[in-house]
Every structure is written in structure tokens, then in C-alpha cells.
Amino acid sequence: MSFSSLVSDIAYRNADRDDTRSGLSRAGSYAERDDTRSQLSRARSYASTTATSVSISGDISSQLHGGYSHPLSRAWQAERQLTKSMLIYPLFISDQPDEETLIPSLPNQYRRGLNKVVPYLTPLVAKGLKSVILFGVPLAEGVKDALGSNADDPKGPVIKAIRLLRRSFPELFIVADVCLCEYTSHGHCGILRDDGSLNNALSVDRISDVAMAYAAAGAHCVAPSDMNDGRIRAIKLKLIEAGIAHQVVLMSYSAKFSGCLYGPFRDAAGSCPSFGDRRCYQLPPGGRGLARRAIVRDINEGADIILVKPASQYLDIISDAKEIGKDLPVAAYQVSGEFAMIHAAAKAGVFELKTMAEEATQGILRAGASIVITYFTPEFLDWLSN
């Protein structure tokens, strides 16, 4: 029934009811007629308002507010709900056993020695921490060299940390970042030629050896971040040869872009290059096509998870990774610069820290990631219910 028909129908039924009634006083009849006119007016008003609303909004399917009017129904609209199991917390492991040093450019983050790591993680694990990613920070005098020898030293910080965490937290999923920049005297992510350029073949051989050492020590996942061509295939082959490919996740930093967002991390890890930069092996910020090619390459070489880094400025790349690797998990690293910017803006009163942290992370999930490496992990363990 149309709205105009509804108004006519109400008017007819009310008028008919008045005419057939008898025994009523004139005053009563006037009162009921007034009431009828009032009902008719309300019906016309309702019909007019509703008709106007529909005529403005168009088709009925355009009426969306009801679908997210309640907090729970708003949550249902998200393709991915952020949960604690999606989070990986970066840890900087110092070779000084009792160190616990605040990183000034990275709010609330510390370098910690092995004697400090377990006491720090114990309450976080109790709150639901599921995974950490380890970055070694060698500080001892003379420990760095051109080959990054300390990276896979059994007495080095990462291998010792892997073994310690496996004993202390059997359910904790341990990711080991695989790179040489923290361990080389020159600060680059591989082995260099005499002219200072990266020797890709030697770098891949060295990186894959380091990955194997971490896997043998008990890492559940190895994550090469060096961006040398062919290192995923080399690592996968060595895992197969060692008979442990079936129990080690290979997470590739497939789309790692060069840029200015890594400063606080380099302060923490002591990994600034002593000369030049990393633009010849990390992707250029505008290189979307290069990123897509790198993702395809790493999937074909045996990557189990694809990682995009940084996250918030590269949401299109996260979306591309999910499109290309439909059957693979996609991870995103909300890097130190992103984290520091959010903190700085919140401190300046631009927005509330929790609100922005949640909004930024939801953007990463919406783009296609289902794993997020973030320094906000301790806060999310308090903010999230599951």
C-alpha cells in the first residue's frame, strides 16, 4: 500500500466510525472528531516524513544505519577483528645480560639483556602474549665485523634468547628476524664487494646460514629482512636438506621499502649504515610494481607468510599482497617511525593515543593483513578482551 493510500484509508475508517455511532453528545462528537482529525494529521505527517526519507535516500538497500547502530553489530561489520593472536611484539635483545635501557626515540621500549627478558615477558604472557620477534643488539667491543659473524654465534644474543624463551614460555611463538645489519661493521644487510656494493650471492649464502642457525636453536619462524634476491629459495632449500622444513615457518619481508621511518629502530639496534644507504636493495617508496614482483617471487620460492613493511603508508601494498597471495597469511610491520609518530601526535593533543592506535591497526587489517608486528602489543593486551 502506498503512503497516500494509507492516509485515505485511515481517513475513511475514522469518518465511517463517527457516522455510525449514536447516543453521543454533541460535545462528545466534537471531541471525537477532533481526535480523528489529530490521528489523521499524525498519519499524514508520518506518511510525508517517511516518503520524503525514502525519496531522498533512494532504494531501500541504501538504509545502512541500522546495521551498525549497536556496538556488537558495528564489530560485525569488520572483515577481521583484531585479536591478541594476531600480534607479534618486537624485542631488542642485548648481549649485555643485565641491560635494561630505554630507547629515547621509541617510547616505552627498551633494550634488554637475557637476565631481564623473562621477568619482563612473564606478565605479558599471562595477559595473552602469543608471539615475539627477536632482534639482536651486539654491544660488546669489537664484536662486529664485515661478515656479521656474531649473528649466528651460539653465544650471541639471539640464539641464547631463543633457547631461553623456549624453556621459559613453551607456548610462546618465537620469530627470529634474519639480517646482518646489526652485526656488520659497515651496517649493511649483507656482505659487500670492494667497491662497497652488495654482493648478493655471498649475502644470500650467509643469510641462509644464519636462518638455519636460528631454526636449529628452536625458532618457530625465521624472517629474512635483508631483501637480497633469492634468499627465500636458499633458506627453504637448506631447511629441506636439514629435514626441518616441516616445522619452521618462513616469513619473508617481501615488500620492505626504503624510507625515513626506521630511525628509532636503528637507534635501538645500532644498525645505521656507516656509509651510503639501503636504496639499492630496499624498494623505492613509489615502486608498487616492484613490490608485486617481489611478492610473486617470494611466494614461488617457498615463503609461508608475506610481510609488508612499513604498514600504514603502504596499505595498497598490503592489499596487493593479499590479492596475489590469496592462500597465504599476510603480515604487516607497523615500524618504529609509525609508532613514534602516533605517540608524538597524541602527546601534542592531536588525538587520544588508544583511539589512534586502534584506528591505525584496523586500517592495516582492513587492507588485508591478518598478522601485525607492532610496539603497541603490550597496550593491546590490556585493551583487547581476546
From TrEMBL:
- This protein's record includes keyword Lyase: yes
What PROSITE patterns would the database entry show?
Answer: D_ALA_DEHYDRATASE (PS00169)
Write out the entry's keywords from A to Z: Heme biosynthesis, Lyase, Metal-binding, Porphyrin biosynthesis, Zinc
Q: What is its EC number?
A: 4.2.1.24
Q: Which residues does the record give as 5-aminolevulinate 1 binding sites? A: R266, R278
* Cofactor(s) listed in the protein's UniProt record: Zn(2+)
State the active site. K256, K309
> One GO CC annotation, please?
cytosol
What pathway does this protein act in?
Answer: Porphyrin-containing compound metabolism; protoporphyrin-IX biosynthesis; coproporphyrinogen-III from 5-aminolevulinate: step 1/4
Catalytic activity field: 2 5-aminolevulinate = porphobilinogen + 2 H2O + H(+)
Q: Where does Zn(2+) bind?
A: C179, C181, C189
Q: Which GO terms describe its molecular function?
A: porphobilinogen synthase activity; zinc ion binding
Q: Where is this region: Disordered?
A: 17-44
The residues that hold 5-aminolevulinate 2 are S336, Y375
Q: Does the keyword Metal-binding apply?
A: yes
Q: Which GO terms describe its biological process?
A: protoporphyrinogen IX biosynthetic process
Write out the similarity annotation: Belongs to the ALAD family.
Q: How is the quaternary structure described? A: Homooctamer.
The protein's job, in short, is:
Catalyzes an early step in the biosynthesis of tetrapyrroles. Binds two molecules of 5-aminolevulinate per subunit, each at a distinct site, and catalyzes their condensation to form porphobilinogen.
UniProt name for this protein: Delta-aminolevulinic acid dehydratase
